[in-house]
Specification:
The chain is mostly helical. The chain has helices at residues 10-18, 20-40, 72-143, 149-183, and strands at 46-52, 63-69. The protein has a two-stranded antiparallel sheet. The longest helix has 72 residues, at 72-143.
Length: 192
C-alpha cells in the first residue's frame, strides 16, 4: 500500500494525473470549496426607496421613505449551511483520496503481474523450443529404426499443450497491459 509519503513511481504519478475520474473529483473539490465559501456569505441587503405623491392636492405633501432589510432567516440558518458545506467539502476530499489510493494500489499490483506474464511467456517459448528439439531428435530416431511414431506423437501432444498454454499467457498478458494503459490514462495507445 502507498503510505502517501513515499515518492510515486512514474506509472503511479501518470495514473493519478491522467485518470478521468480523479480529475472529475478534483473539479468536485473546487465546486465544494466554492459552496463552502458561498455558505459563509450572507445574502445581499435589500434596499427599498419609496416615493409617494398625494392623490388629493388639498391634504398635502408627498412622502419619501427608505428602508433596509436583511433576511433574518439567512443569519439564523447560516451556521447550518456552513456545516453542510464543510461536510460536503470534506466528503469530496475523502472521496478523491480514496480513489487516488485505490488507483496507486492497482497500478502497483498490475505492474508485477505484467512482469510475471512476460517471464512466463519467455519460459513458455523456451519450453516450446525444447519440445521442438525433442521432436526433431525423436524423428531422427524413428528414421534410424530405434524409436516408434508413438514417441513422436506424445512429444507433439506436449507441444500442442504448451502452445495452448502460451496462448493463454499471451492473452492474459495483453489484458494486463491494456488495463495498465487504462490506469495511466493512455487507453488508446498500443499495448506492446
Amino acid at each position: 500500500m502507498w503510505d502517501g509519503r513515499e515518492l510515486l513511481k512514474v506509472e503511479q504519478a501518470m495514473a493519478l494525473r491522467n485518470n478521468r475520474e480523479i480529475r472529475a473529483q478534483v473539479e468536485q473539490i473546487v465546486a465544494s470549496r466554492a459552496n463552502f465559501v458561498q455558505a459563509g456569505l450572507l445574502p445581499n441587503l435589500v434596499v427599498g426607496l419609496t416615493l409617494r405623491f398625494p392623490f388629493d392636492p388639498v391634504s398635502g405633501g408627498s412622502f419619501i421613505g427608505a428602508q433596509v432589510a436583511q433576511l433574518f432567516s439567512a443569519v439564523w440558518l447560516s451556521e447550518g449551511k456552513d456545516k453542510a458545506a464543510d461536510t460536503g467539502l470534506n466528503q469530496s476530499v475523502l472521496d478523491i483520496s480514496d480513489k487516488a489510493l485505490g488507483l496507486v494500489t492497482e497500478v502497483k499490483a498490475t505492474q508485477p503481474r505484467i512482469a510475471f506474464g512476460q517471464s512466463a511467456l519467455a519460459l513458455g517459448d523456451e519450453k516450446l523450443a525444447t519440445i521442438q528439439k525433442s521432436i526433431d531428435s525423436l524423428d531422427a530416431r524413428v528414421r534410424g529404426g530405434e524409436g516408434t511414431p508413438l514417441d513422436v506423437n506424445r512429444a507433439k501432444q506436449q507441444q500442442a499443450k504448451a502452445q495452448a498454454a502460451r496462448a493463454v499467457v499471451l492473452r492474459d498478458l495483453a489484458k494486463k497491459r491494456r488495463r495498465m494503459l487504462e490506469l495511466v490514462g493512455f487507453a488508446s495507445e498500443g499495448a506492446e
